[in-house]
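Contributing: when you submit paired examples, paste them exactly as shown. First protein:
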Amino acid sequence: MKIILTVIASVMISLSALAQEEAAAPAETASTEAVAVESSLIKSVAYNAETRVLTVVMVKNDETYEYSDVPELIYKELMEAESKGSYFIKNIKSTYKTVKK
């Protein structure tokens, strides 16, 4: 019984240390640099998972727009879309609060 308790205590300490390391490590998807995309409408896209802000730079006039409270799934779907411009118009443009920068 004493051995089992020692093993359990050891595992608990290891799990606690691992949890602290993970909490201290920055999230991998927290922020991305702007990525150039192939599109006649969109020049580049950036996404910050912590703030849930999607930044889109348009081809025309290099206008930059920030879309608030965008789920990461929407960002991923945009980046995987065959037509990023069509996906953007249908799923983002009029759906999320926008600020022109």
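Second protein:
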Amino acid sequence: MKKLTFILGFLLVITACRQKPKTTDQDSSSDQTKKDSSSTAAPGMTNEEEQLHQAKMDLLKLPEKSYTVRGKVIGGKGFVLILDKLDVAKVEPLLSQTLNDNGEFKFTGKLREPELFELRLSSDQNRVIHFPLFPGDDLYFTFDINHPENFQVNGSVEPVYLRDMYYTIEKTNDKITEVEDLQANITDKAKISRMADTLPHFYERIQREKSANLRNFALKLSDTPFTALMASERLDAEYPENFAFMEKMEPQFAKKYPYSPFYLDLHNKVTIYAPVSPGHTIPDIMVTDAKGISYRPTQFHGKILLLYFWNVDCKDCNEEIPLLESLYEKYKSKGLELLSVSLDNDRGDWMNAITDKKLPGIQTNDIGLFKSTSAQTLLVSTTPYTFVIGKDGKIISKKQTLKEVQRQLVKEFGF
């Protein structure tokens, strides 16, 4: 079993921001409470920052409960062990202790809500244990200094849940590593080129597999434990199946962990992606064709609209053109409209492509690639990118391959 070196890189977007931890177990939370409770939201805060600030203010109203984290590190005599608190985007060192002759340690403090912590050795940043900690917990860890991932713990099952979640993620990450190692060892340029062409599809498949594993993992955990929240927060809300899951789970986590930064991050993802998710009315955008005529998705009410984002240099987009033509020819007389939006910065290249490739449907352009107004509004992050929009203007599906779109259109038109 590999050491969990991937944990910090995957779980948290953390920079080298660890400060010197306290070397005492005494808590100074009462002074900090007075300081925090008197502060107000700074001007210029984003909505997310304001939410986090308000959550912190509300959290200070909750009673504190003591916690204890203790245990034994086999072979740890003389090593320095550090207890950190982990946030969505930072590490806060709390306490440190030099392990005694028996490798024993003990950390105490106070909490108002469940939070994420880690035990790490100062001599090796990769040798860590991540674990949720609840107010009132008394946890006892036993682990070998060389293999902390094989820890045993008494007092809570949550650390084991979290370790299992990491292993679930690692299974799919290993597949990516294997392919990248294979690619690095290939010397045949033709093979390298063929592999490069297939990598985007491979990564997309792995991402979907990882998402499915996380969703299934969260569902297995009864009574919405903290680790289920963390698994749900890790999901990419851009994928409709993930968004639907996050939207369903969010109210449950809101009841149990309303002040957690991991819940707030989940909540913000749901809020941001809701307007561009299936079942919601497509946000209005305006794009123009080569003659300067403007088009909006909202003008196609009463028709099924395929909104297709692409760009000239997109290999997958070019490969899909025959199928795009076929679908448009098959369904246009039945009420399908195709609105293609090129995100190319060079309108000349785009206009040449329209002529050379004889592209079907309404062809428009919105300069700026993924920073264009339409891409920003609809959260388009890659090409090709599809939206199938119903006659009522609501999104039926999105972010599908054209073959998946084909199956969706069969459902809509009945053939």
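If you have annotations for the second protein, write them as plain sentences, like these:
The first strand starts at residue 65 and ends at 74.
Confidence is low (pLDDT under 50) at residues 1-19, 24-39.
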